[in-house]
Amino acid sequence: MLRDAGIEVELAPTTRPAMAQELAHGAVIRGVDLVLVCGGDGTINEVINGLAPSQIPLGILPSGTANILARELRLPHSLMRAARQLPQWSPRRIALGRARWGGARSPREGGNSSTEVFCRYYASVAGVGFDAHIVYKLSSRLKLGFGVAGYVLEAFRQLLRYPFPTFSCRLDGHAQQGTFAVVHRTRLYAGWLHLAPSADLFAPRFAVCSFSSRSRARYLFYALATLARQHLRLRDVELHQSAQVVCTPGDTATTIRFELDGELAGALPATFEIVPDALTVLVP
After folding, report:
1. Distance of CA 5 to CAs 9, 82, 85, Å?
2. Does the structure show a pLDDT above 50 at 159?
3. Which of 1, 143, 224, 272 is the most exposed place for a label (fewest CB within 10 A)?
């Protein structure tokens, strides 16, 4: 279909983690006209980390488990339909989120003992606390075999085991205390939950949704309220806008992990910042 539309493609399959990022970075060095990615949020995350902040446009052919970014851009769910329509899509420049973490930390704190600081872009969501722990515990067998249902199963399992340690997120002079927070670029979470309705992929800011309870029963109520799109009416759920978010653990001896676009990244403390004009994406 792409060749019929006059788009000559070079197929480059991935065979291991981080390979998509290397392929995208190689494409930037070679100065290609366009990079297409067929995969889910994790694969897309690797590609944008190889592409940004170049001007080379990214076209997404949806696949994978959830694919929040494809849903946010209202791309066709069908791979063939997306390929057929892609020649009519237009380039649009967007901001990305970027996480920074690391530095001098002890192994007991769950980090690298060196002074190296890590940076990584993300396009959709950064999850801090409970959901990152789910990703940490989720087996590849469960993820590949059951998709989104695998995450749900692991979430119920960890609901009975996770201690819900507290952390603080500081944004624009305001501090939010929580046991779970999502630093959104997109409105959607987990592919279909409208967790942050005020988020805007085309605006240079985050929408930060935080949940503060440590009660397991309360988390079940959070889930039901989120499904009904009523979670923002709860007194212990907050949603705020910011261009930078600094998250620190309540207890420095406790490891609190975070994920980026559904992939485990690192542990707090971490800073999430907006990078304007970072990526070109093709949109309908």
Report:
1. 11, 13, 10
2. yes
3. 224
Which of 191, 167, 190, 135 has its CA nearest to residue 272? 167
CATH of span 19-94: 3.40.50.10330
End-to-end CA distance of the chain: 17
pLDDT of 106 above 70 = no
Q: Give the Cα separation of 160 and 164 in Å (integer).
A: 10
What value does the mean pLDDT of the chain take? 92
Residue 171: count other Cβ atoms within 10 Å of its Cβ: 20
Looking at the predicted structure, is the pLDDT value of residue 108 above 50?
no
Pairing state of beta strands 188-189 and 193-194? antiparallel
CATH 2.60.200.40 fits 97-277, yes or no: yes
Among the listed residues 95, 33, 89, the one whose alpha carbon sits nearest the alpha carbon of residue 62? 89
Q: Which of 105, 199, 190 is nearest to 180 (CA)?
A: 190
